[in-house]
C-alpha cells in the first residue's frame, strides 16, 4: 500500500468515526450531573465536560492530568506492574524490551487504552511510524477523546506532508481540549501555512 493510500485509509478510520463519537460525547448526560460519579466512564465524562468548558490554561492542565490518571489505571495489578516495567525499560533505553512488555499488556488487556497509547508512542520513538499510526487507530477506537493520541496523529500527518489532514486532527484535539496552548499554536501555524499556499 502506498503512503498516500495508507494515510487516507487512516483518516477514514480515525477522524470521521472519532468526530462522530465526539459529537455524542460532548452532550452532557444526566450521569455527569449527579453528585456521585462512581464508574471510570462517569468520571471521565465529567472530566472531559469540564475540560471542554475550562478556559484557564493551568486549571485545564490539571483536568488533563486527572484524565491521564484515569487512563493509566487498568484495573489489573498484573497489567499495572507490566506498565511500570515497560516504563523502566524505556528509561533504561531498552526499547525492544519495553516493546515486548507492551505486547504482553495488549494481549492481556486489549481494551486498556493506555497499553495501545504507550506502544504507539514507543513505535514513534523507534521510527516505526506505520505501526505507531496503527496503534493510534486502536487507541481512538477505544477512546475517541484521547487527545494525546490525536496529537501524535497530527504530528505524523504533518511530517508526511498531509497538512490539511493534520489541521483537521488539530481541530479535533482543540474540540476536546480547547485551552491547550501548544495545540493552539500548532493549529494556527498550520492554518497560516495552508492559507499561504492557496494564495
Automatic annotation (TrEMBL):
<keyword id="KW-0677">Repeat</keyword>
<dbReference type="InterPro" id="IPR050498">
    <property type="entry name" value="Ycf3"/>
</dbReference>
<feature type="repeat" description="TPR">
    <location>
        <begin position="113"/>
        <end position="146"/>
    </location>
</feature>
<feature type="signal peptide">
    <location>
        <begin position="1"/>
        <end position="25"/>
    </location>
</feature>
<keyword id="KW-0732">Signal</keyword>
<keyword id="KW-0802">TPR repeat</keyword>
<dbReference type="InterPro" id="IPR011990">
    <property type="entry name" value="TPR-like_helical_dom_sf"/>
</dbReference>
<protein>
    <submittedName>
        <fullName>Uncharacterized protein</fullName>
    </submittedName>
</protein>
<dbReference type="InterPro" id="IPR019734">
    <property type="entry name" value="TPR_rpt"/>
</dbReference>
Amino acid at each position: 500500500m502506498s503512503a498516500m493510500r495508507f494515510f487516507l485509509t487512516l483518516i477514514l478510520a480515525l477522524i470521521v468515526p472519532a468526530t462522530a463519537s465526539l459529537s455524542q460525547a460532548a452532550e452532557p448526560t444526566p450521569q455527569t450531573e449527579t453528585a456521585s460519579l462512581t464508574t471510570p466512564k462517569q468520571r471521565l465524562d465529567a472530566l472531559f465536560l469540564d475540560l471542554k468548558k475550562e478556559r484557564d490554561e493551568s486549571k485545564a492542565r490539571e483536568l488533563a492530568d486527572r484524565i491521564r490518571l484515569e487512563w493509566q489505571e487498568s484495573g489489573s495489578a498484573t497489567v499495572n506492574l507490566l506498565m511500570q516495567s515497560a516504563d523502566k525499560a524505556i528509561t533504561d533505553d531498552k526499547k525492544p524490551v519495553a516493546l515486548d512488555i507492551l505486547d504482553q499488556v495488549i494481549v492481556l488487556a486489549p481494551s486498556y487504552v493506555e497499553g495501545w497509547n504507550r506502544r504507539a508512542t514507543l513505535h514513534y520513538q523507534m521510527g516505526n511510524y506505520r505501526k505507531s499510526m496503527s496503534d493510534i487507530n486502536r487507541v481512538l477506537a477505544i477512546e475517541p477523546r484521547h487527545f494525546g493520541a490525536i496529537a501524535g496523529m497530527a504530528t505524523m500527518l504533518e511530517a508526511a506532508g498531509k497538512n490539511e489532514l493534520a489541521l483537521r486532527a488539530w481541530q479535533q484535539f482543540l474540540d476536546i481540549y480547547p485551552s491547550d496552548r501548544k495545540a493552539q499554536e500548532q493549529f494556527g501555524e498550520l492554518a497560516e501555512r495552508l492559507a499561504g499556499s492557496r494564495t
